[in-house]
Amino acid sequence: MNQAAVAPSKVSGHTILAFDFGSRWIGVAVGDTETRLANPLGVFQAAGGERRMEEIEALVREWRPAHLVVGLPLAMDGTEHDMTRRARRFARQLESRFRLPVELADERLTSASARETLRERGKGGREHKQDVHALSAKIILQSWLDESPRR
Q1: What is the distance between the alpha carbons of residues 15 and 9, in angstroms, rounded to a whole number?
Q2: Phi, psi dihedral angles at 143 (to 5 degrees)
Q3: pLDDT tens-place string over residues 64-75
Q4: Which residues contact 128 (CB under 8 A, 6 or more apart)?
């Protein structure tokens, strides 16, 4: 996996992994419900269902999350489209394979926000295109953590 950043603390009973599902790349972030902080972890290629699941299995073994979050791509008006259905299928596959709770989180505008953040850091060019996915996963997870005081 292409490492974007490494979270400060590994493996707790409160660890959450989040995924920014895409047709070419999947961004990954890790967070903790105690600290309520999310960190981008990296990206891997989305192609090949079994290879994709092997990448995720390695992450699940390493981080031992209590929960998984998958970004749900919706149109700006909230309607669903092909990528929405694909992300839902991906979430069901994760739940079935890893027997962990999986939640879907609205990811509208996360990629735009990630691209803007990278541009502000001077990393807006093609060579940093993959970083958008890891940062998007972080934004998805941070929003999920911030959404409710019970998390």
Answers
A1: 9
A2: -60, -40
A3: 999 999 999 877
A4: 118
pTM across the whole model = 0.80
User: Where do we find the tokens 């603390």?
Assistant: 9
Separation between Cα atoms, residue 114 and residue 100, nearest integer Å: 27
DSSP string covering 31-74: EETTTTEEEEEEEEE--SHHHHHHHHHHHHHHH--SEEEEEE--
**Other beta carbons within 10 Å of 28:** 26
Token digits of residue 92? 């069901």
| Predicted confidence (pLDDT) per residue in 122-143, tens digit | 665 555 566 778 888 999 999 8
What is the rounded distance in angstroms from the CA atom of residue 127 to the CA atom of residue 60?
28
- Residues 109/88, Cβ–Cβ less than 8 Å: no
Distance in angstroms (rounded) separating the CA atoms of residues 53 and 139? 22
Query: Could you tell me if residue 86 is left (phi over 0), alpha (psi between -120 and 50 degrees) or otherwise beta?
Result: alpha
